[in-house]
Design a protein that fits this description.
- The structure is a single chain.
- The protein has 282 residues and is α/β, with parallel strands linked by helices.
- It has two domains: 2-29 and 71-158, Rossmann fold, CATH 3.40.50; 159-280, Hypothetical Protein Tm841, Chain: A,domain 3 (2-Layer Sandwich).
- Helix content is 40%, strand content 24%.
- The strands form three sheets. Strands 10-9-8-13-11-12 form a six-stranded mixed β-sheet, with helices on both faces. A four-stranded parallel β-sheet has the order 2-1-6-7, sandwiched between helices.
- A hairpin with a 1-residue loop joins β9 (190-196) and β10 (198-205).
Length: 282
């Protein structure tokens, strides 16, 4: 039996993970010096307070806020323990350029006598989740692990991921401002970016409606000959249903899934973020 394993930065709905038989290895999320174990609604409330605190300190001086969240990637020991519960394993992880999780997984795999194949999705959030679900789907269809990995790598090439960051405060104060390198003053704007191995800044705008128009417009440019699968992640965004409806019209099909992003992604992209992943045929 071959098991699929992914990490907490793959924003995969719990029900989909259970149905697909995907094990999710989660790193710790620290908030104000303590491990965060609450639900998503409480998470967004805490992140909003962190944003407010960080903004006040930026405007009026002071150290970076003590309530800033940070995510610790799964350790080699955690990954190895997860792998040891299965036979052969396909480990599907977020981009090696954005996280050490892929390197940790590769280190763990090296100690397990070739039983583990590690896939770098060159993505994050719903993009990584889609690749993990694709591997699981291939295995359940009867393909062996090698063929499932080959299919996954094809999907990695076809995958597009775009994101809207409504407020960059958490990204900047979390030490990830380099993801927006080259766009000048980052505060006071909504940012549109893509992820393909690394983060690719696209544009910054002032208003939320304009940011959504830019996000959808940029996605439309990359639809190619059609879209086979797509998914949406969001940070408690109240307009996600509207955005999803507009995307369904463009893609010509309903989303594979829509989910709230978890702490690993949410603690960087912040409240009201939107992440769209889709597989383009051309």
């Amino acid at each position: 039996m071959t098991k699929v394993v992914t990490d907490g930065a793959a924003d995969l709905p719990d029900a989909a993970a259970e149905e697909s038989g995907i094990a999710v290895v989660r790193g710790k999320v620290m908030l104000a010096g303590s491990e965060w174990t609450g639900g998503n609604h409480e998470l967004w409330q805490n992140l909003e307070r962190s944003v407010d605190s960080a903004r006040r300190r930026r405007l009026f001086g002071g150290d970076r806020p003590v309530a800033m969240p940070s995510t610790k990637a799964p350790t080699v020991e955690q990954l190895r323990a997860a792998y040891d519960t299965a036979g052969d394993v396909v480990a599907v992880h977020v981009s090696a350029e954005l996280s050490r999780t892929f390197a940790n997984a590769s280190e763990a795999a090296a100690a397990l006598s070739g039983r583990v194949r590690v896939v770098d999705t060159r993505s994050l959030s719903v993009g990584t989740a889609m690749i993990a679900m694709g591997v699981s789907e291939a295995l359940r269809a009867g393909f062996d692990a090698s063929r499932a990995v080959a299919i996954a790598l094809t999907w990695v090439d076809q995958l597009h991921v775009h994101a809207l960051i409504d407020d960059v405060t958490l990204l900047v104060h979390g030490g990830r401002a380099g993801l927006l390198e080259g766009v000048g003053d980052v505060h006071g704007h909504r940012h549109i970016m893509a992820v393909k191995g690394h983060a690719i800044p696209i544009r910054k705008v002032r208003s939320r409606p304009e940011a959504i128009r830019e996000l959808i417009g940029h996605i439309r440019e990359h639809v190619g000959d059609g879209v086979t699968r797509w998914a949406v992640g969001h940070g408690g965004a109240t307009d996600v249903a509207e955005v999803t409806d507009r995307l369904a019209h463009i893609f010509g099909c309903e989303p594979w899934f829509v989910t709230e992003v978890g702490p690993p992604v949410g603690s960087h992209l912040g409240p009201r973020c939107l992440v769209v992943g889709f597989l383009s045929e051309g």
